[in-house]
Write a structure and sequence with these properties.
Endonuclease, Chain A; alpha+beta
Length: 244
């Protein structure tokens, strides 16, 4: 019923709306009468009528025999609901301040399993910005090879450039051979200086960590963290320790 929907829009639940509509055409009524007209059980009707009184939609009429209830006029009820909204809006600036303070904090997302690592790749590619990363040979070997090729294919399709730093290894050397075709620049460090079983990268304001061995990962969304890691990457990228 459309009337029930409108009453729910101003704060009543389904049973409260039904009991209010049952009470409205009556001058005064007992919970039993309201139960009969609304279709709710008598014990429930008592509880709901008390709720309507507390919400300002009904009045409780004391009686020597039985407690009776009377519905307030719809005009008065809507005015009351409107006033409550106005009062609530006074708290809006304070509520927004709380929300803004939360938005300044880093957002951290945790992913598990191969499907979780795929979701990290998908999310990072949505940023559509250069990707820089410290990679791992595990990115391209064994069971991860199919996943890495699919990711590279998607990155190329979106035209996203990548710069990668990895340890001197056969896997990273093979990756470097296809740099031009795969929109990538790859540089290497001696394994005694750098080796890793995880990939750590940055794209826009997002920092991601992918552990291909244990099959889990993280995305941290924060300008300060991403900016710091970008600076560290640039220092290493231009280091004299880079193997030509």
């Amino acid at each position: 019923m459309e009337l029930i929907k409108h009453l729910k829009d101003i704060g009543l639940n389904d049973k409260e709306a039904r009991c209010y509509l049952a009470l409205l055409p009556l001058n005064q009524a007992t919970a039993y009468m309201v139960a009969l007209r609304s279709g709710v059980k008598k014990p429930t009707a008592y509880v709901i009528l008390e709720s309507l009184v507390s919400k300002g939609f009904a009045l409780k009429i004391p009686s020597q025999k039985k407690i009776k209830y009377m519905a307030k006029s719809p005009k008065e009820c809507f005015a009351f609901a409107s006033e409550k909204i106005k009062l609530a809006q006074e708290a809006l600036p304070e509520l927004m301040a709380i929300r803004n303070s939360i938005s300044d904090k880093p957002k951290v997302y945790y992913f598990e399993g191969k499907s979780g690592l795929d979701l990290i790749d998908t999310d990072i590619l949505k940023v559509k910005s250069e990707i820089i990363s410290f990679t791992t040979p595990l990115f391209v070997i064994n069971e991860n090879e199919k996943t890495s090729k699919a990711y590279i294919k998607k990155r190329i399709a979106t035209g996203i450039q990548a710069r990668v730093i990895g340890q001197v290894s056969a896997e990273v050397r093979d990756l470097k051979k296809s740099d031009k075709a795969e929109l990538r620049q790859t540089r290497m460090l001696p394994a005694e200086l750098f080796s890793s079983e995880v990939e750590l990268g940055v794209c826009g304001d997002k920092v991601y960590v992918s552990n291909y061995k244990k099959k889990f990962g993280l995305i941290i969304e924060d300008k300060d963290i991403s900016a710091t890691l970008k600076k560290i990457f640039e220092v290493v990228w231009n280091s004299e320790k880079i193997v030509k």
